[in-house]
Write a structure and sequence with these properties.
Elements (H helix, E strand, L loop, with lengths): L1 H8 L11 H7 L17 H18 L2 E3 L1 H8 L6 E5 L3 H6 L6 E2 L2 H6 L11 E5 L4 H12 L5 E4 L27 E2 L1 H9 L4 E4 L3 H6 L6 E2 L5 H4 L9 E4 L4 H14 L3 E4 L2 H7 L29 H18 L14
Helix pairs in contact: 3-7
Length: 334
Amino acid sequence: MGAQTLINAGVANKVLALRDGTQGWHLAGLELVHGASQRAPMPTAAGLAEAQKAALRVAKRFGVRTISLNELKAQQSEPDTTVYLFDVRSPEEYKEGHLPGSIWAVGGQLVQTTDAFAGVRNSTVVLVDDTGVRATFVASWLIQMGWSKVFVLRDGLVGAELERGTPQASVLGGRMPHADTVTATELKALLDGGAVQVADLQSSLRYREGHIPGAWHVVRSRFADNLPKIQPVRLLVLTSPDGLLARVAAADAARVFGAPVKVLEGGTAAWVAGGLSLEEGIERFTGPTDDVRYRSLEQSQNVEMHIHDYLQWEVDLLKGIEVDPDFGFRRFEN
């Protein structure tokens, strides 16, 4: 996708993509780097000017439309319309100042895992950045994928009142369920005294990578099967990455577990922020690990087999979409 984006932008250089990506690199016996944090530098003034010219060409080719801030607010006020406002800049830029109500989404992931960001099909998607370049290129890909109501916010953040930081997550309708809570410090003391069990609601993949020591992995929709597998104690504490899902699920857990249930205030993020350690592993799963789809390199066994299966699926996909009645990709002439 990155290579094709550069080609669509009209980059004069010869652009190549690594065949089979990082999976092919792994199959070749070469080592992958994990946890890398390097980023390309921000463009120079001249580089930005060229990028904006490229964005104009891409917008014309793929029919990228713009929308004003007033038009956006009008659409957001319509009761039967779902509007997603995605800010596709870096997380640092987003925290420095963003439009109220906008959701941070890295552009490449928004395109490749759209369903993880926009849960309503055929909803309105509005993209915003500071220069129009990143938003335009993301919009061009969503349009090619069949999304018909995609817009770039005209003038981006110019003159708009911005808010700083990361907005606190909320539940649908804005009503936060009541739940008794414990702080990370209080939970640590309870664990040291053996008077509590912790149930973690994050995905099995994220749980495997790090969780509160002694915590069990549970899936909210499977409480009836999962929670009885946890040894009965006087208190069960639920946690999730930021504590929100745990709060929403607390009442359901109490009905199934048969003992008082509290929620870790701020979730596992608060545990980490308090300087408390996490542990890795899969020793306390309460059910199958099919709550999320594991990518090939995330498998714990037979990684190479999963890679080969995935790469074959990619090749066969080109044939499959020719007969798929739900195929929505659009083709554009050069």
